[in-house]
Amino acid sequence: MTGRESVDGLRFQVLGPLRAWRGGQELDLGPSQRRVVLAVLLLHAGRPLNRQRLVEAVWGEAVPARAANLLQRHVSALRRVLEPERAPRSPSGLLAWTEAGYLLTLGAHQSDLRRCEELIGRAHAARARGDLPATAECLRAALRLWQGPLCEGLAGPLLDAERDRLAERRLSVLEERIEVDLALGDDFDLAGEVRRLTEAHPLREGLHGLLMLALHRSGRQAEALAAYHRARRLLRDELGIEPGQRLRRLHTRILAADPALDAGEAQPAGVETARSALPAPVVPAQLPHPVAGFVGREEALALLDALLPTDPDGPEQAMAVITAIGGTAGVGKTTLAVHWAHRVRHRFPDGQLYVNLRGFDPGGPAVRPAEAIRGFLDALGVPPRRIPVDPDGQIGLYRSLLANRRMLVVLDNAQDTDQVRPLLPGSPHCCTVITSRNLLTGLVITDGARPVTLGLMSRAEATDVLGHRIGGHRLTGDPDALEDIIASCARLPLALAIVGAHAATQPQLPLASVAKELRAAHSALDLLDGGDAATDVRKVFSWSYRRLTEPAARLFRLLGLHPGPDIGTAAVAGIAGLPAAQVRSQLAELTASHLLFSPAADRYAGHDLLSAYAAELARTHDTSADRTAAVRRMLDHYLHSAYRASLHLSPHRDDPITLAPPRAPVTGERFAGHDEALSWFLREHAVLLAVRRLAVDHGLDGHAWQLAWALQPYFDRAGHWHDSAAAHERALGAARRAGSAHGQAVVHGCLAYAYMRLSRYEEVATHMRQALHLYETLGDVLGQAHTHRTLCWLRDEKGQYEQGLDHARRALELFTAASHRTGRARALNALGWFCSRLGRHEEALTHCEQALRLLEEADDRFDQGDTWDSLGHIHRHLHHYAQAAECFERALVLYEETGDRYNEADTLYSLGDLHLAAGERGAATAAWRRSADVLDELGHRRAAEVRARLTAETESNSPENQVP
Questions:
Q1: Which end of the chain is more exposed for a tag (fewer CB within 10 A), N or C?
Q2: CB of 195 within 8 A of CB of 349?
Q3: Residue among 342, 324, 340 at smallest CA distance from 332
């Protein structure tokens, strides 16, 4: 490849993080200050930039000593990276020095910024000639080039100014693209997109106009007019002005129902400035499928409708509580809530959240508020590493995300007020619907909730339910049988649905026969019947159950042993001890009989009354040995599946365990890789917690502690540190009852790890001492090594570096004796770290470089990040500032890749110290600010410490803080 071909093969990205490629291979651009130099040159591509202006653009007023020399070194390093085949001292074909200054020469398609400007120019040309489809295509292509703010993560006077200018440019292009989409009639869900933009940029009149037009085009004239009044109030309150002429004219035309507005005439976007265009938030859609053919409940629906404000932009908060008389179950609270939620979801374009709080679930405890909040944060698209550790911080983040958003929140099957209150959003534009068998009086009194009491169905409604399912003509032929069926079903929708499903599948069966069978079932259950509607419905369950084939009936009973809240086909096969293909036909039979429902693909669940009934049948029809065998198969399935999944998340664990083989025919699930394993954990999270409790309840303590071990990498990766601590606290008791000294040692270590994340250091020390004692008693060399390595972490947190060095040496000896390569590498890194902390930097460098080689050989990327961070500290203390910056940057890339948010913040803090030592005060404060932001997101106690340092350095201008 010639020098010119090498230059032509370069490609640069500035619309987002600064990146460069040559022929598809990404280049390492070096430390952040060097990247800033390159970014400034890219923004001036094709134009010479003299040395003084370049220095000012990079450092502003905080110019370091020997800035010209620093600049020359950065330029030389960039030339070596960008033109590796250029002969020394030969002229550069890319970055040349001219009489007017540095000149970076690029082709039209080598920079995403230049390509973006070209596409915008083509869009304007296409619009001028009336080619709107080509205009839209070019604008969309231009917008796709934006991967984030300009040179995201880099700081400098020129970059900061250009970042704001280009953010405004992007917003203008986005407005123009929306205009063109409206003109083309391609307005699917444009209202939701524009509403989010108006919330991000509330003073931009053009966006308000686009929102009004999009709503009008969607047939929502009232909402379009309401959007105008909202914009008018906002402009008057914030700026003391009335809307501009174009917005007022559009309002008048909508009022007059101007037909031209429906003919593709788009409102031009305004030119109000905005600092940045925020990415559109995730719009969750968690509502379960509504029941097909919903009938009745008109009075309750009208009451719910009345709770919504007539002015969608009004300040009122809408909150509804649906309760049932006397705590009656099966009365249709969830069905009503979900049906109404679907009916009004267009009023909540920012999304709908749903959670089953399992307040009265017979299979396990109710969902804790913290669990529900965490599920909502996941649905709102919050990355796990950005979720605070503290539950109060998670609640605050949840409410912040919902602030100024119009969302519907459905809290189903609530147990009591205490469970619900933390889940209530603070936004006045959100509607919360709560279902419960209890009255939740505390919410009504304290929080202004308005109860909608739901009683039994009227006779007419019950008739409509049956008529919808089996046909009205069958009802009119035998009114006496109809009355008997309604009475037997106690006018409960759940019972009516089950009877209707059976009758619909047998159209030749007279209603009188159905009524007779129900009366027989009633006689058989008289002794168990408590006389209220909740127990009367059991006779319908019995009637439906007796109509099942024997294999389906057996499966129904065995599913009563599962703790819920739902189950996948593979787990069903495990419980039944049958192939998956065989249980699918039985699941189809149970679903058709309305004894199960499918909330998602390949997932099954049952109403809590039906689950309790199935468990009762299992106790009375199946032997104790059969039930125990089914539970063991279930636990084997989940344990072996979780074990395999955990090894994909953490393949280099140095606290391994060995499982007994699963009982035939159970095999457990297998996973193709990390992402598939993590998805399985996310899907089964609630089930695994319930199954672990089930293992304890059945005295299967080995399964209980081993399952907690398997969950540990997932808990840590997803930030569920409180769940991890709680699970391992109970697992410790299980390991003791099981008489497993190894299990106790392992759980002590896992518990210490969770406590370390929660900064509970005294408890960490206690559990580590106990783990070490047990491992020494057992003669478990690898376990001892693992414990000493964890104690290194504790000693570092407490500033006890000599003790930490002792633990690192001992860990290295033990890992070497156990022939554990990645453990040996981790111990070498710890040894280097503590040597550096004690001032022995050359020795530290040798240890960490050896550790890095071992980790690269093992492809252990997670621990490579820690080692690069250690090398950054060592080089900084050796005054190798360029090497230190490069090491820190490599660590940051790996921490981001592996989701290690805390260590990312820690490395950013160290990077700030490095910049300050190198005289780069602006870069230092930028790095500390990023570190503090990450720690704030995590809810970590160090955030206040970093912000205090940031404030002190920002306010201080004393000479001793300037490093020449």
A1: C
A2: yes
A3: 324
